[in-house]
Amino acid sequence: MKTQLELAREGIITPQMKKAAIDEGVAETLIRDGIAYGHIVLPCSPSRPNQNVVAIGRGLRTKVNASIGTSSDINSIELEIKKAKAAEEEKADTLMELSTGGDLNAIRQAVLAECNLPVGNVPLYQAFSEAAKKYRNPNKLDSEYLFELIERQLADGISFMAIHCGINRFSIERLRKQGFRYGGLVSKGGTFMVSWMEYNQKENPLYEQFDRVCALMKKYDAVLSLGNGIRAGAIHDSHDRAQMAEMIINCELAELGREMGCQMMVEGPGHVPLDEIAGNIMLEKAMSGGAPYYVLGPLPADSGAGYDHITAAIGAAHSAHHGADLICYITPAEHLALPNEQDVREGVRATRLAARIGDIAKYPERREQEKRVALARRDSAWEDHFKLLMFPEQARAIRKERTPENERTCTMCGDFCANERGYALFKDDIRGDRCRKVEAIIEE
Ligand code: SF4
Asked: MF terms per GO, please (predicted)?
């Protein structure tokens, strides 16, 4: 079986590429050529032919990922299925199943069966969780088992995997030598791998046998997302030498993987102050040859716990603006607890809104929807207004709860509605369109 990347390089437009082009409102050749150059990925799992088609990358709408999964403290298949369905209802584009507690095979299979989103995961979680149970020490994991497990999960229908190939002895040495780390290590998979390497005094097998990882991904046409195991967990660690060492290696691996015909993404960057986000994205794009960038937030402050979906949304709007392609949501439970169903809903909503804000800046030519909302609002066309909103049900509910006397206004200003007064004064003067006015001048 050839991957979407290999087919694109042969000039073939696959049914998935066609579907993605229709969904995005772009030319089929834009999708095909983006995949051929490695600027776009299209996760496809032969085990789940009916999963949604989602293309991620340059020139496309910024996508939103929702992560779910059990922990050793809270583990219920029913709850995870509810969370997966909630993410899909809230219009997340992809889902990551990141369980570490309970029957991990059963949870993964149930989630894959119950939702239509492309599902990703982190295979290290199951590998180290099982080793912890079996040997009472995750560092005793047999690295051969890791490869077996990756294949089993791909065969189940996982269509993208975050794998920590970029942590190696070189990047760990950078961490040791720099002499500080305010946020420590915050990646579960990354920390497991660093610990295994230190305990066994060996190189990361996923780095050493990278071609084997790519061969497995190719076999199932899964997207390899190069995990960010030494990401910054505090804004004061942003762009430290350890993080950058891993990013350089990941970007190098992205190029190698593409040469092998594998669809590649790079992950980053964790906690990053707002003024460093544009630079971070520029570095990833420049060093990886334009590989799609899958960002976790980023969180531009460390002190927002309880409202970190908002903290991350601010970072996400900036990252989408500057070129991030897929944004992993953050929920209000971040740094505090395992997210519940409502947290999942809030996280997806906040991140979708952030991605929309970023896209408005990234693609100024695609602002038509915002214009239509503004016109409906200007004309007090409430029903049209609701239909155009991202969250119509929430908007309707708020208005219904506090109904105004004059149905053209709302209870915010009531009799003093500026909109109504302005409309009465200027309605015949402000009906024009800026673009048409410019076009008319050009025609003259
Ligand atoms: S009442 Fe105030 S907030 Fe409501 S529509 Fe009129 S101007 Fe806008």
From this structure: 4 iron, 4 sulfur cluster binding; metal ion binding; phosphomethylpyrimidine synthase activity
